[in-house]
């Protein structure tokens, strides 16, 4: 890797003849520029690499000549700012390079072709780096409207090129994953948060003993792909170690299963700069990673990157492009891509057509998928079983079981594909998964009649499907049939039957099934007992479930987090809240933590029962024990105190939220505002509303309704309007003033409501019409029909037609008060709008 030579005189003699010894050295980028240590998250490779920070400062030695010298880039990082900086672009001239060597006491060399070859390896790939970096700055993903431009790269396909064998996939044996070195490296990686120089040194020594395939096993063993990528970068910076080419491909394969597209692109660039062969499969991995990240345009631009890098297209990368388009729901683009493939001479194979069939099924065009299968033989490509399985899976999902039979007959007759054991297993699993247990059972009988033996996994799938449909007798009969055929059921099969008995309330049969498991040598596990406990709690026997869980150690099984949750919910539903809280405490002691939803349900139950102090104590215990207490839990408890009119406790709890780094949201503030308004503390409610808006929280519709209700209830209309202006400046609410008018009408204050009528009639919507009708009714109830008439006239002026029956009532009241002109004018307005009067009808 990289090191600093503090004693240059020790190797000056070696370097005095650069023509003789210069091939012993290779120039690489100084690792001190990107930091040191495995925890580095952002390791970027720029188009220009630093190779001249100081004399002899950044040599990457591939020769054992200086193996005795070990240096750390940490020492070099401290002197970096004092040293001259020279970048790789400065070495384009050979004469300039010789001058630089003379400055440090080395005679000029006329044979530096090795450096030129190293610096100019695959220059076409580096040329596209700048454009790639610009892609990161623009908006990723996009609508994919310009992806047609990427189809032109197919024109570079060479019709007569020889297709090579796929050598980029590395198949690892199980023994390689269990290798002691691999396990020890994985153990040290898991302790990366507590790394020190000693542990890092141990890992560095192990790394040098790892063969390339074992390094691949380490990468694939990581549960978190980011950790695998960090280890890949860390290992690449170590001295006397160089990644084998297969390690790069395995790293790209791991990243292709994630959304870490930028990391995959950087690994690909690193391969090009190291002079490694970049086969199309490497680009395909990057393309799939971009696709998983939802960046379709960048995924297809990988094809352009291939063209610039001088890598020839092949059918594999084209199939990857089709797959990416299908997964992005761009079926039409995928079809266009296939057409362009055939134009340039790339003949689609069965993989290509299977991708298109998958695309047709994704958009529910199963008839087109069937038609494509029928056309494949005429295009020189016979469909395989995967082609049919894709459509069969879609038909099972859509519950079109009859068409499954027809398609199977077509597969046998037209495509000459025989029904083998794999086919029957696939059909059984698909039908069972989507609830067609009877059809799956029929295929099981048919397979056995043809001499095929379906394993216990297929039987278990049918048993599970029968139990979900509550066909317990059939399920139990199938289990007995398995025993008679010598197909011993496993714990999954028995657990499905236990759960089925619990579904129909036959708890005694479920218990007997657990005993039968033990007799047949199948030990029940935590899932089996959890299914029984769930049945007990569902039928109101949560106390028995609690006792059974307490006896778990004697029964040689260990409850898991789901087991505790099941029992806790059962006790909570039966009102045994104290015991439910004890279950949660025991759960925490055993290392299992309840979710915030489960905590909230218990807090809500305690608050509903009026046990506020117990609820607060329970939440504090959960918070102190590291449980996932969130703002919703605090809000639920605050709401409980507000319901009990204990505002001081509620406000104190609001302060505790800040101390616990849990920031109140709009729902929390709305709860407090409503409680303050309910108790007449309208000034405090105003302050909290303003505080909520200043914090950048967006008022919800419930917030508007709460504020409007409390202010209208107290007749503080002017204060309400000022507050609404502030709230509306943060978040628009079109019906805010409608709610104000309706609330004022409901509280018997139509005069104040009429003042806001102009703000409501600006939009002239159906909601505005309903608001005006409520105002008219309010005036009629107060015996002021003339005001109701004025409201109706305002509606007509805004091209809103009032309710005819309501206006008839207004007209009758106007006549009783002797205002005949207004009454007749109101009816004439309806005639002018083309609305017939009842007398005319």
From TrEMBL:
InterPro entries per record: PPR_P_subfamily, PPR_rpt, TPR-like_helical_dom_sf
Superkingdom, taxonomy of origin: Eukaryota
Positions annotated as PPR repeat: 314-348, 349-383, 384-418, 420-454, 455-489, 490-524, 525-559, 560-594, 595-629, 630-664, 665-699, 700-730
Location of region: Disordered: 120-150
Keyword field: Repeat
Keyword Magnesium part of the UniProt annotation: no
Compositionally skewed regions (Acidic residues) per UniProt: 126-149
NCBIfam families assigned: PPR
Similarity field: Belongs to the PPR family. P subfamily.
Protein name, UniProt field: Pentatricopeptide repeat-containing protein
């Amino acid at each position: 890797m990289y090191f600093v030579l503090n004693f240059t005189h020790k190797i000056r003699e070696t370097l005095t003849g650069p023509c003789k010894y210069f091939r012993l050295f290779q120039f690489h980028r100084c690792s001190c520029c990107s930091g040191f240590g495995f925890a580095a998250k952002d390791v970027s490779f720029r188009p220009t690499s630093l190779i001249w920070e100081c004399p002899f400062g950044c040599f990457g030695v591939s020769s054992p000549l200086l193996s005795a010298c070990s240096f750390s880039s940490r020492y070099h990082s401290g002197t970096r700012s004092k040293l001259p900086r020279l970048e790789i672009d400065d070495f384009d001239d050979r004469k300039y390079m010789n001058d630089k060597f003379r400055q440090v006491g080395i005679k000029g060399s006329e044979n530096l072709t090795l450096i030129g070859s190293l610096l100019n390896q695959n220059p076409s790939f580096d040329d596209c780096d700048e454009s790639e970096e610009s892609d990161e700055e623009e908006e990723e993903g996009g609508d994919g409207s310009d992806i047609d431009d990427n189809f032109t790269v197919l024109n570079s396909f060479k019709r007569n090129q020889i297709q090579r064998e796929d050598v980029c996939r590395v198949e690892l044996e199980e023994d390689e994953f269990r290798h002691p070195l691999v396990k020890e490296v994985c153990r040290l990686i898991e302790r990366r948060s507590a790394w020190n120089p000693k542990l890092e040194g141990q890992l560095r020594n192990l790394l040098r003993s790892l063969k390339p395939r074992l390094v691949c096993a380490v990468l694939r063993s990581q549960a978190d792909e980011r950790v695998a990528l960090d280890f890949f970068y860390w290992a690449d910076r170590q001295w006397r170690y160089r990644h084998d080419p297969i390690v790069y491909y395995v790293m790209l394969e791991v990243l292709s299963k994630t959304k870490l597209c930028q990391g995959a692109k950087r690994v690909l660039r690193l391969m090009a700069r190291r002079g490694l062969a970049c086969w199309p499969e490497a680009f395909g991995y990057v393309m799939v990673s971009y696709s998983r990240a939802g960046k379709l345009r960048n995924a297809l631009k990988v094809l352009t990157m291939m063209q610039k890098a001088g890598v020839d297209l092949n059918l594999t990368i084209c199939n990857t492009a089709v797959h990416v388009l299908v997964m992005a729901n761009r079926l039409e683009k995928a079809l266009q891509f296939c057409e362009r493939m055939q134009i340039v001479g790339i003949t689609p194979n069965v993989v290509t057509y299977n991708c298109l069939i998958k695309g047709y099924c994704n958009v529910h065009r199963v008839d087109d998928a069937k038609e494509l299968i029928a056309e494949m033989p005429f295009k020189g490509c016979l469909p395989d079983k995967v082609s049919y399985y894709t459509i069969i899976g879609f038909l099972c999902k859509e519950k079109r079981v009859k068409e499954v039979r027809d398609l199977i007959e077509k597969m046998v007759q037209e495509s000459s594909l025989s029904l083998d054991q794999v086919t029957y297993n696939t059909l059984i699993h698909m039908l069972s998964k989507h609830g067609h247990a009877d059809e799956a059972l029929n295929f099981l009988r048919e397979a056995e009649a043809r001499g095929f033996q379906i394993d216990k996994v297929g039987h278990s799938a049918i048993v599970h499907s029968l139990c979900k449909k509550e066909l317990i007798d059939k399920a139990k009969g199938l289990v007995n049939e398995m025993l008679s055929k010598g197909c011993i059921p496993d714990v999954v099969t028995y657990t499905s039957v236990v759960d089925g008995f619990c579904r129909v309330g036959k708890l005694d049969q479920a218990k007997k099934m657990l005993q039968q498991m033990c007799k047949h040598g199948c030990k029940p596990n935590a899932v089996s007992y959890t299914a029984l406990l769930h049945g007990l709690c569902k039928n109101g026997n949560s106390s028995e479930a609690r006792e059974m869980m307490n006896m778990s150690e004697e029964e040689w099984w260990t409850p898991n987090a789901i087991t505790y949750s099941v029992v806790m919910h059962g006790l909570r539903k039966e009102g045994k809240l104290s015991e439910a809280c004890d279950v949660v405490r025991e759960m925490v002691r055993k290392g299992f933590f309840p979710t915030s939803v489960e905590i909230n349900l218990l807090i809500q139950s305690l608050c509903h029962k009026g046990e506020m102090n117990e609820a607060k104590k329970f939440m504090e215990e959960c918070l102190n024990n590291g449980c996932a207490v969130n703002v919703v839990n605090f809000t639920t408890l605050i709401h409980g105190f507000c319901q009990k009119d204990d505002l001081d406790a509620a406000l104190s709890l609001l302060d505790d939220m800040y101390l616990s780094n849990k920031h109140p949201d709009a729902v929390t503030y709305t709860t407090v505002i409503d409680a303050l308004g309910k108790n007449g503390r309208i000034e405090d409610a105003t302050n909290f509303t303003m505080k909520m808006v200043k914090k950048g929280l967006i008022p919800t519709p419930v917030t508007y309704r709460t504020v409007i209700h409390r202010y209208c209830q107290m007749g503080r209309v002017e204060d309400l309007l000022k507050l609404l202006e502030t709230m509306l400046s943060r978040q628009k609410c079109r019906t805010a003033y409608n709610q104000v008018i309706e609330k004022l009408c409901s509280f018997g204050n139509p005069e104040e409501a009429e003042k806001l009528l102009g703000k409501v009639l600006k939009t002239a919507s159906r909601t505005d019409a309903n608001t005006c009708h409520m105002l008219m009714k309010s005036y009629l109830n107060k015996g002021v029909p003339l005001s109701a008439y004025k409201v109706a006239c305002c509606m007509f002026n805004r091209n809103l037609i009032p309710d005819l029956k309501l206006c008839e009532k207004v007209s009758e009241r106007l006549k009783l008060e002797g205002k005949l002109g207004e009454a007749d004018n109101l009816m004439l307005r309806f005639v002018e709008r083309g609305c017939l009067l009842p007398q005319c009808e």
